[in-house]
């Protein structure tokens, strides 16, 4: 019996490609291509009957879909939700409309992740982002108007030309718009991104300085950091879907490029957009234990050693752990400083 309670769905289509992005994404060649992909996704959803604790629709740009197609997708998931389901969709601010938000509300979407990245509009243009701050605030207000109040905003630091003053402006934006959840991600230049092709590089010292500033200011304005890259104004707004990843709960992946983990099998969907297949990585015990250590130490609360599998992971690696970098308290294994996870993990890998 499949007891998977978490579902990720990938919508790869975009109107334009951001310079930093290395996710599976494409500008569709026709409306028919989008329609055929959606048909395949909905067909796969039709065979999955589990009630989910969380559903997350990511991309790409999920709200690049037409209102009609978005409604078809969300309607197909109604059998998988109940009143407790965290139902998240990623949105690009420039595509948010009143009719679109109505569709989200009517289909019980209760959490939205907005890709803001920075409030410096000159840098946004360098990233090939098309929105403005006014457009983002309009999108937020539309969501609030329809009582979708659990809004998360994504930002990136250590971007080219980004200064501390720009970060301060972004944090002021967060305060002004009463954003419940915020993610600050360090810029990563990965294979497949436009930035990588341009041979752009990352300044590690600037990255560390900017992260320290973000930590200090976010704490001052009342946000709790609960994971390396995530802050929330209240515990009830923690991302339950991401917590499932970090706690290694099973999740199903639908769509090209999506990763899943079910019954100790980690997989990714490879192939073409209309004919993808699962490529399994059958993890051994060490792989599972290492994932638990890597993901669990990202959380500020650390790894709960009362959980049997977490305890086994700790027992497996306990002789390799540098105990000057971690603490065990109340039967939880925590990083003394989550900003130096690589230093902790290098001894155990």
According to DSSP, the number of beta strands is: 15
Average pLDDT score: 95
* CATH fold label of the largest domain: TIM Barrel
> How is the main sheet built?
9 strands, mixed
The helical percent reads 25-40%
What is the CATH first-level class name of the largest domain? Alpha Beta
| Total domains | 2
Order of helices and strands: EHEHEHEHHEHEHHEEHEEEEHEHEEH
The assigned structural class equals alpha/beta
Seen as an oligomer or otherwise, the chain set is single chain
Count of DSSP helices?
12
Identify the CATH architecture of the largest domain: Alpha-Beta Barrel
What is the secondary structure topology, with strand pairs?
Elements: E1 6-11, H1 31-46, E2 54-59, H2 67-75, E3 86-91, H3 98-106, E4 111-117, H4 121-126, H5 133-145, E5 151-157, H6 164-176, E6 181-186, H7 194-197, H8 204-220, E7 224-227, E8 230-232, H9 240-246, E9 252-254, E10 259-262, E11 265-272, E12 275-282, H10 285-296, E13 303-304, H11 308-317, E14 326-329, E15 332-335, H12 341-345
Please outline what is shown here.
With 349 residues, the protein is α/β, with parallel strands linked by helices. It has helices at 31-46, 67-75, 98-106, 121-126, 133-145, 164-176, 194-197, 204-220, 240-246, 285-296, 308-317, 341-345; strands at 6-11, 54-59, 86-91, 111-117, 151-157, 181-186, 224-227, 230-232, 252-254, 259-262, 265-272, 275-282, 303-304, 326-329, 332-335.
List keywords for this structure.
metal-binding, 12 helices, S-adenosyl-L-methionine, 22% strand, 349 residues, 2 domains, TIM Barrel, 35% helix, single chain, nine-stranded mixed beta sheet, Heme chaperone HemW, alpha/beta, chaperone
């Amino acid at each position: 019996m499949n007891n998977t309670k978490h579902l990720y769905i990938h919508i790869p289509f975009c109107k334009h490609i951001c310079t930093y992005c290395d996710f599976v994404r494409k500008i569709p060649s026709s409306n028919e291509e989008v329609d055929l992909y959606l048909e395949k996704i909905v067909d796969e959803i039709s065979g999955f009957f589990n009630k989910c604790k969380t559903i997350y629709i990511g991309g790409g740009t999920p709200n690049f879909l037409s209102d009609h197609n978005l409604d078809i997708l969300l309607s197909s998931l109604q059998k998988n939700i109940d009143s407790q389901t965290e139902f998240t969709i990623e949105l690009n601010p420039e595509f948010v409309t009143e009719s679109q938000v109505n569709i989200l509300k009517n289909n019980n979407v209760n959490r939205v992740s907005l890709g803001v990245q920075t409030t410096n509009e000159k840098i946004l243009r360098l990233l090939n982002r098309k929105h403005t701050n006014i457009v983002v605030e309009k999108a937020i207000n539309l969501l609030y108007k329809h009582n979708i109040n659990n809004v998360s905003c994504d930002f990136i630091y250590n971007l080219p030309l980004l200064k501390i003053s720009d970060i301060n402006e972004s944090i002021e934006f967060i305060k002004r718009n009463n954003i419940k959840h915020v993610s600050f991600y360090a810029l990563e230049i990965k294979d497949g991104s436009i930035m990588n092709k341009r041979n752009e590089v990352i300044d590690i010292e600037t990255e560390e300085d900017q992260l320290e500033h973000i930590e200090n200011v976010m704490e001052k304005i009342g946000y709790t950091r609960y994971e390396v890259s995530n802050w929330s104004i209240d515990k009830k707004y923690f991302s339950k879907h991401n917590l499932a990843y970090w706690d290694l709960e099973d999740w199903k992946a639908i769509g090209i490029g999506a990763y899943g983990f079910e019954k100790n099998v980690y997989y990714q969907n490879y192939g073409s957009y209309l004919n993808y297949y699962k490529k399994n990585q059958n993890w051994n015990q060490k792989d599972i234990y290492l994932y638990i250590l890597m993901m669990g130490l990202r959380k500020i609360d650390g790894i709960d050693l009362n959980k049997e599998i977490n305890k086994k992971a700790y027992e497996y690696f306990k002789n390799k752990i540098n105990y000057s970098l971690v603490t065990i308290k109340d039967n939880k294994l925590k990083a003394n400083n989550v900003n130096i996870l690589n230093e902790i993990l290098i001894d155990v890998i």
